[in-house]
Amino acid sequence: MSGSDNPRKFIDPAVLNKITHLELKARAIVEGFLSGMHKSPHHGFSVEFKTHREYVAGDDLKHLDWKVFGRSDRLFIKEYEMETNLRGHIVLDTSESMEYGSGDISKLQLACYIAASMAYLLNQQQDAVGVTCFDKAVSSRVPAKTGHGHLATLLTALAATTPKEKTDVEHVFRELAEKFGRRGMVIIISDLFDDAEKVLKGLRYFRSKSHDVVVFHVWDEDELTFPFKRMTKFEGLEIDDKVLCDPLSVRKAYLEEVEAFNQKIRRGCQQQFVDYTLISSDRRLDVELTKFLAARMGTRLVRRGGTA
Predict the structure, then answer these.
(1) Cα separations (Å) of 205 from 15, 115, 198, 215, 266?
(2) Do 124 and 261 belong together in one domain?
(3) Which of 20, 93, 204, 236 could connect to 190 by a Cys-Cys bridge, CB 3.0–4.6 Å?
């Protein structure tokens, strides 16, 4: 990519620093993720990957598995169930509730790390990948493309995200299901702070278009554990409301509500064959992504009539 085409050329140094940090973080996460994969019988992220076969003259060299060659000194081709490259659509929630963070990072920062990691991984596989940010409507969109220059464009978009409005999951998902066109992978990264029925209805729009849907359900650790003990004032991020209360008196009811909400989303995803994983701010992303892949591949083997 020439200097005149570099999307970073006109970027503020502070924003550039955020982009560089995102790229380094994503690379570190993906390298840890891939390292975990080598300890597992499940290889490859793309849902279309099927198996290996020996290379024969005339095969497309872009499908050579160089890691296998390094271990065995033999050439193998990755075979896919579809010959077309995967098109990945990352759908990132940038609503106000994503601003919350009790530790070093907010939910939005955690979501951006996940998005950058997925974009980095798909880009490394030469798959097309794009990013759409939303709150009550689509706020920005980078269409799915390939190439390292495009990865820089995606990271620029992620680095520029700021929480603003309330969430309207159903409306946004219906709109995006129409825009994304032919079948691809839709990776949703959100706290899903909306009515559970509307969230599940929104997911059905993607599934009705035959998209392969992955949900990363993002939570802050404090939202899941509710560790507060003293009299505390709670402020709504997407509602104009403040409540002063004794957290010990509401903790049990709060945790039951959170568990019921998560269970409803999880079961709804399972019923629609949507891959669901909950990620909180206290967990290592490379470990969580490795666990996600192993579970995903195992589930797909069962769906095909095999064994995990």
Answers:
(1) 35, 21, 11, 14, 17
(2) yes
(3) 93
- Read off the pLDDT of residues 195-240 as tens digits, 9 standing for 90 and up: 999 999 999 999 999 999 999 999 999 999 888 776 555 665 555 5
Same domain as 299, residue 157: yes
Q: Which two tokens stand for residue 163?
A: 């929480």
What share of residues in the chain are helix, strand, coil (percent, to 5)?
45, 20, 30
Over pLDDT 70: what percentage of the chain? 72
Q: Measuring CA to CA, which residue among 40, 28, 191, 204 is closest to residue 113? A: 28
Pairing between β-strand 212-219 and β-strand 185-190 as defined by DSSP bridges: parallel
Residues 128 and 66 reside in one and the same domain: no
Number of CB atoms found within 10 A of residue 145's CB: 15
| Phi–psi pair at 145, nearest 5 degrees | -145, 175
Q: Please tell me whether residues 79 and 200 are part of one structural domain.
A: no
pLDDT at position 211 is: 94
What domain range is 205 assigned to?
A: 3-32+86-303
Q: Cα separation of 119 and 125, whole Å?
A: 10
Backbone conformation region of residue 305, classed left if phi is above 0, alpha if psi is from -120 to 50, else beta:
left
Q: Which of 82, 75, 48 is nearest to 59 (CA)?
A: 75
In a domain, 12, yes or no: yes
CATH no. for residue 291? 3.40.50.410
Could you give the 3-state DSSP secondary structure of residue 36?
A: helix
In tens, the pLDDT along 92-132 reads 999 999 998 888 899 999 999 999 989 988 888 888 999 99
Query: What backbone torsions phi and psi does residue 179 show, to the nearest 5 degrees?
Result: -75, -35
Same-domain pairing of 65 and 123 = no
25 and 105 together in one domain? yes
